[in-house]
Specification:
The protein has 383 residues and is an all-alpha fold. It is built from twelve helices and no strands. The N and C termini lie far apart (56 Å).
């Protein structure tokens, strides 16, 4: 074996005190740029009143961000050797993420997905080389690793073909489903030895990243309030309400440990894949905050209802998705009914004169509901 390299064998899934590495944290910071570009472009598209087109293009760009991040995260949990070749390959993946970030606005505003496809292919081909290396080193999981490597390469050929042939938009969800099927097909051969606590931590850190986009939008509203005396009061209210909403989103997501969600084959995929809606909705909320800021500065041309919906629909998706992904397995009828009622109420707050205030009140109520039901479940478990 070349000097400085380690055999890429599966790590111990019960390794004590396993935490995210500094390289993984750096990797996530690169994705901050991509998420920021996508949410910023969504704000511009919404301001131009292209709501359906905006959501469709945002969903497509965010898929590239999410799926590339997710595959690296699960692989790293099982095979992070932290040697020089592993690090260099991860840096190549970071370069691909930056290409995606650079092309996000062009894809969403001009429907040019060239950079998105290029960046995605860079990241995924680098990922295939990691799986190939694991297949060579680890005979126990060789079948799984080979399936990953071959599947990833085949799907990249399909993505490049879609772009080169200028395929119709409806090809995208079909190719996305094919792409997403690589992992379950490979894992059915033999599940990789990922670390449950490590995976939960990695998803939690990415949640903080997308919530950070909303914090940035809140900061922008405060800055606007300091420089515009006429809109100061309104912007401060938007900032306060948005901060309360972000705090509620954090509370709802982090109120319970999540490592047990990845203990079984089916549940781990359900939990891992459906986080797409949690992440995408949280990042889209920041675009809604930007719309609210622009409205108070007199820079928005959106009707009041439309502006409110850009804020409340992402929150409704986040609330429903977090319940579905994190809590529906407990079959708590009170929380289920309460979540549905609050989700509908969230959308309805767009009709209020002050949508950010109404949304903040509903989200605080949702956080209280989650906390109450978890405390009740814990109390019953001790009886």
């Amino acid at each position: 074996m070349p000097a400085g390299l380690r055999a890429m064998l599966a790590r111990d899934p019960d390794e004590p005190h396993r935490a995210a590495s500094s390289l993984e944290l750096l990797f996530d910071l690169v994705f901050v740029v991509a998420v920021s570009q996508a949410s910023g472009a969504l704000h511009h598209i919404w301001e131009e009143q292209h709501f359906v087109e905006g959501l469709a293009s945002y969903a497509m760009v965010f898929f590239a961000i999410f799926n590339a991040w997710m595959n690296f995260t699960w692989f790293g949990s099982a095979y992070d050797t932290d040697d020089w070749l592993y690090r260099l390959t991860v840096f190549v993946q970071m370069a691909g993420a930056l290409v995606i970030a650079a092309g996000a606005q062009r894809a969403m505003l001009e429907n040019d997905f060239g950079a998105i496809v290029a960046g995605y292919v860079i990241m995924r081909v680098a990922m295939a080389t990691q799986w190939t290396r694991a297949a060579i080193s680890d005979p126990e999981f060789r079948g799984t690793c080979v399936r990953y490597a071959v599947g990833i390469v085949i799907v990249q050929v399909l993505w490049v073909s879609w772009f080169v042939l200028d395929g119709p938009v409806w090809w995208f969800p079909v190719l996305a489903l094919i792409d997403l099927s690589v992992s379950p097909i490979a894992e059915r051969h033999k599940m990789t030895a990922y670390h449950h606590h490590h995976i939960a931590e990695r998803y939690s850190l990415f949640t903080l990243i997308v919530l950070g986009e909303s914090i940035l939008a809140v900061a922008n509203s405060i800055i606007g309030g300091l420089t515009d005396a006429h809109a100061r009061t309104g912007l401060i209210v938007v900032a306060a309400c948005s901060l309360a909403t972000v705090a509620s989103m954090w509370w709802i997501y982090f109120d319970r440990p999540q490592h047990h969600q990845t203990m079984t084959f089916g549940r781990s995929f359900f939990w891992g894949y459906l986080h797409y809606f949690i992440f995408a909705a949280a990042a889209a909320f920041s675009a809604g905050v930007e719309v609210a800021v622009a409205d108070h500065l007199g820079e928005s041309h959106l009707p009041h209802l439309a502006a409110g919906l850009t804020l409340t629909i992402p929150l409704a998706v986040f609330l429903l998705a977090t319940w579905l992904v994190l809590d529906s397995v407990r079959r708590d009828a009170v929380q289920a009914i309460g979540t549905i009622v609050l989700t509908v109420a969230l959308v309805g707050t767009a009709y209020l004169p002050n949508a950010p205030l109404g949304a903040a009140v509903i989200m605080i109520a949702a956080a209280a509901l989650v906390s109450w039901r978890h405390a009740t479940a814990d109390r019953l478990a001790t009886l």
